[in-house]
Amino acid sequence: MKNLRVFFLALLLLASPLLQVARSQSDSDAEVAGTMEEVSDIGIVGEDAQDFGDNNFSQAPGVDIVCVFPKNSARLVNAGEETELLVGIKNDGELPITVAGIRASVHLPFDHKLLVQNLSAQGFNNATIPASSQATFPYIFGVSKYLQPGSFDLVGTIVFEIDQQPYQSTFYNGTIEVVESGGFLSTETVFLVTLGIALLVLFGLWLHSQIQNLSKKSKRAPKVEVGTGARDASMDEWLQGTALSRSQSQKSKKKK
Predict the structure, then answer these.
(1) What are phi and psi of 49, to 5 degrees?
(2) Its family (predicted)?
(3) If we measure between CA atoms, which residue out of 60, 51, 93 comes closest to residue 167?
(4) pLDDT value for 121
């Protein structure tokens, strides 16, 4: 009965984090569904923000573009916090480049048609890069704080003009790792740690009960029947008249 109560308490301990994770997961899913199409305010710099629309422009010849995540080679993005990347442009052409701004979006890695979040566009007030020159532009963005941790694809595009002809170039089209902000422990990690501790406690209680049962059995000594000096009456009758009976009677008389 005691073991049954211990097992029941262990089951309650195991079930409590499951209920909490399920409740928080359902709440976060509902909130993410409402914010999938919203544009985050993080990444807008002053009044330079512009709406470039969804127009697709051609690639410009003689323009090399690179992208770097400064001090973040793992490309970790904390949900709900700002993340910075740098876009470098090298103008190998004969005409200056006028940079309009940068836009980006987050997609599911297995299908870019499934949009997760449109990030804010950041303008640069038509900054100019002369011919045979280069420049670096920062882009600060932030994903929704309700976005579930995991791997996503970030697609970043820079829009610029050369001789009043609009162009665009994708400076990054790769994976980012979204993590929970505020610490290294995620909800899944806390649940797994709690589950492991509960299983260890349950195993320890079971092992303790088994050791107690074995010790109790070892303390029970086997009962050994020891014969007494009393003789059966029938045996005495059978010995009457024999030499053994006479010798025993003589011994009893001597003792008296």
Answers:
(1) -65, 135
(2) Belongs to the TRAP-alpha family.
(3) 60
(4) 92
Q: How many CB atoms lie within 10 A of CB 171?
A: 22
3-state secondary structure the chain: CHHHHHHHHHHHHHHHHHHHHHHHHHHHHHHHHHHCCCECCCCCCCCCCCCCCCCCCECCCCEEEEEECCCCCCCEEECCCCEEEEEEEEECCCCCEEEEEEEEEEEECCEEEEEEEECCCEEEEEEEECCCEEEEEEEEECCCCCCCCEEEEEEEEEEEEECCEEEEEEEEEEEEEEECCCCCCCHHHHHHHHHHHHHHHHHHHHHHHHHHHHHHHHHCCCCCCCCCCCCCHHHHHHHCCCHHHHHHHHHHHHHC
- Residue-wise pLDDT tens digits, 17-74: 444 444 444 444 444 334 333 333 333 333 344 555 556 677 788 899 999 999 899 9
What is the pTM assigned to this prediction? 0.53
Tell which residue, 125, 89, 83, has the closest CA to residue 104: 83
Answer whether 99's CB lies under 8 Å from 127's CB.
yes
The answer to whether the CB of 184 falls within 8 A of the CB of 76 is no
> How far apart (Å, rounded) are the C-alpha atoms in residues 101 and 50?
7
